[in-house]
Amino acid sequence: MKRSPHRPQYLEDSETLSGVPEVPTAVRHREPWEGLPATLEWALVAYAGSALGQVFPLPLGEALLGRSPDCALALLDGEVSRRHACLHVTAGGVRLEDLGSTNGTRLNGVPIQGSATLLAGDRVTVGGHVLKLVAMDPLERAFHETLLDLSTRDPLTGLANRSCVLAELQNRFGLSLRYGRPLSVVICDLDHFKRVNDAHGHAAGDMVLRAFGAWATASLREADLAGRIGGEEFLMVLPETDLSGAQPFAERLRQVVASRPVPMPSGGLGVTCSLGIAQRQPGDLDAGQLLARADAALYRAKAEGRDRVCSD
């Protein structure tokens, strides 16, 4: 999902392999649904940028694209405006409208003025992101989503894997620092997890991890991200959130874990967790400092008896 240090190079729109100029595809004149089946689902697939590999389905109606976490297509990149562009989606096609963005919106390498109609295969560039419009059938969408899951998901819990969540934290930390927006993280550790494995076997331990993954996912907002960073250790990244918002989130998750025994063949197995919270401070120069303070809070929660939330 993260941006490659080397952005892919594309032919300019006025170039072809034979060297003969052609009309830029951004101004081609044909119907956007020409040659496509009558029933299809539009989607944008990220081919470059921090969302690499991600599939953004485009339901009928309007979808905002921008840096703000509440946008339907949220691209967390300092080169992307908070409300960068709007996609107008109909059964017949997709129209892209630039919303006066700072760095502009490019269609097949050509800056658009106002709005432009997208055709299947067109590529949209906003900041460091390249998004390709695809007419998806269910099989193709499943293919793209499977590839993304294999590279970014922890297969046991369904949460983001370690490399994905840490890279996303670094990206969101940079945005928080640049724009002076709040950012909090929560580190969670399942209490006495080794005892679960020793007493009930690793299959039972896996069931506990799956259950926690489901509980964490249900607790998240649209813009939040949770990932597994160790055997029984998890990280939640909460953008646009200070300690006053992170504290009740962590406490609700703690209560859910403590109050819902994990179903086992031998009966329900009760588990608890300890959580440490930290908010980005002006003195934090990188995401590592923020994580270190959250980890120190987690250590204190364990030292004070576990099954509790402590903040930095």
Short summary of the structure?
With 312 residues, this protein is of the alpha+beta class.
Provide structural commentary.
- By secondary structure, the protein is α+β, with helices and mostly antiparallel strands.
- Helix content is 30%, strand content 25%.
- The chain has helices at residues 138-152, 162-179, 193-200, 202-219, 243-259, 287-303; strands spanning 41-48, 55-57, 61-66, 73-74, 85-89, 94-98, 106-107, 110-111, 115-118, 123-126, 129-136, 183-190, 225-228, 233-239, 273-279, 309-311.
- Helix 3 crosses helix 4 (202-219) and helix 4 (202-219) packs across helix 5 (243-259).
- 34% of the residues are buried.
Output the keywords.
globular, five-stranded mixed beta sheet, 312 residues, six-stranded antiparallel beta sheet, single chain, 30% helix, 6 helices, alpha+beta
List the helices and strands and how they pair.
Layout: E1 41-48, E2 55-57, E3 61-66, E4 73-74, E5 85-89, E6 94-98, E7 106-107, E8 110-111, E9 115-118, E10 123-126, E11 129-136, H1 138-152, H2 162-179, E12 183-190, H3 193-200, H4 202-219, E13 225-228, E14 233-239, H5 243-259, E15 273-279, H6 287-303, E16 309-311
Parallel strand pairs: 3-4, 15-16
Antiparallel strand pairs: 1-2, 1-11, 3-5, 5-6, 6-9, 7-8, 7-10, 10-11, 12-14, 12-15, 13-14
Helix pairs in contact: 3-4, 4-5
